[in-house]
Write a structure and sequence with these properties.
Helix content: 40-55%
Number of strands: 7
CATH superfamily of the largest domain: Hypothetical protein, domain 2
Largest sheet: 7 strands, mixed
Number of domains: 2
CATH topology of the largest domain: Endonuclease III, domain 1
Number of helices: 14
CATH class of the largest domain: Mainly Alpha
Order of helices and strands: HHHHHHHHHHHHEEEEHEEEH
């Protein structure tokens, strides 16, 4: 790509961004820490969803030092409902690394940034360009869509060869003097104009340079992959009461939804009833013997990578001391205390049922 080609994209895009950039809280605070937090939250999550979470998070943890000193439970409670909880765990872990190894300052190069937990090539490029004005490329879903349409790239963006081609394009295009503005403008264009369906081409500053628009192919690019069907799990859950206390346990860190609290339970086997499955799962997770009573509710929920149907049963404590057999921690808490802990969305719906009984 010759310089004049890059200029034809850079100049109109930056002019458009100057006029059309949304007023977002992380754009009012360009510190490396704020940029990092916002970029982690924005991964695979809509801007409108992130705003409130970002504001609450920054109010509670205004500096990397305060985040590093926090308990993981506190961090995940603030993250509750945002999804992709490994982001929250890695953010907390990374804060400790930054304080310990970097004197509380995020490094300013892509290579150093990628040594920090949870920071990959895209996030490193975003932080380096936006916070430190380094000419580093970025490649997220929005930028991929813009590049595939402008340059009429027909390969699958998931394939390594196409992904490498897109990274090379992004690197050649990035503005050397205003890399942060350019990268944000590319993301903004993909989010608000060059959208997945019904792109507003009439409003696009790159319309004259867009090969997909010229060939009327903007609706078919980027190449869409067939989505694999999500696995579905049928889960038996025990809400175990011991006087006025309820048993909860913490999921293992390396498991799906790791670090979150839940009511003990697990997958039902084909040859057992739901009540049998509930008693078995509670025993296997916590070593507690229970009497399984009435069904409280059936909860259906879809996460990003799987679906669940939870059959929750009220259980009475019989015997045993709660142990961490298949979990990281166990606690007996009151109904009112449940709100202090971070739960998966499906379990939060069980709590709602408990509160109205």
């Amino acid at each position: 790509m010759i310089k004049s080609q890059a200029t034809k994209i850079q100049q109109p895009l930056l002019r458009w961004f100057h006029t059309n950039a949304r007023d977002l809280p992380w754009r009012r605070n360009r510190t490396p820490y704020a940029v990092w937090v916002s970029e982690i939250m924005l991964q695979q999550t809509q801007v409108t969803t992130v705003i409130d979470y970002y504001n609450r998070f920054m109010k509670r943890f205004p500096t990397v030092e305060k985040l590093a000193r926090a308990r993981q439970d506190t961090v995940l409670k603030l993250w509750e409902g945002l999804g992709y909880y490994s982001r929250g765990r890695n953010l907390h872990k990374a804060a400790k690394t930054i304080v310990r190894d970097y004197g509380g300052q995020l490094p300013d190069t892509v290579d150093e940034l990628q040594k920090i937990p949870g920071i990959g090539r895209y996030t490193a490029g975003a932080i380096a360009s936006i916070a430190f004005n380094r000419p580093a490329p970025i490649l997220d879903g929005n930028v991929i869509r813009v590049l595939c349409r402008v340059f009429r790239i027909k390969g699958n963006p998931k394939d390594a060869a196409t992904k490498n081609q897109l990274w090379e394009l992004a690197e050649r295009l990035v503005h050397t003097k205003r890399p942060g503005d350019f990268n944000e403008a590319m993301m903004e264009l993909g989010a608000t104009v060059c959208t997945p369906s019904a792109p507003a081409c009439v409003d696009c500053p790159l319309r004259k340079s867009c090969a997909a628009f010229e060939h009327n192919e903007q609706q078919s690019l980027p190449l869409k992959q067939k989505k694999a069907s999500l696995p579905h799990y049928t889960i038996a859950v025990g809400v175990v009461f011991k006087s006025d206390k309820i048993l909860i346990d913490k999921r293992k860190q390396n498991a799906l939804l790791g670090g979150l609290w839940e009511f003990p339970g697990g997958k039902k086997k084909k040859d057992e009833s739901f009540k049998e499955a509930t008693a078995r799962e509670v025993k296997e997770e916590t070593d507690i013997e229970v009497e399984v009573g009435k069904r409280l509710c059936i909860i259906k929920h879809t996460y990003s990578h799987f679906k669940v149907t939870l059959h929750a049963f009220q259980c009475g404590y019989l015997s045993g001391k709660a142990k961490t057999l298949a979990c990281d921690a166990v606690k007996w808490v009151s109904l009112n205390q449940l709100s202090r802990y971070a739960f998966p969305t499906s379990n939060k719906r069980i709590i709602e049922v408990l509160k109205i009984q």
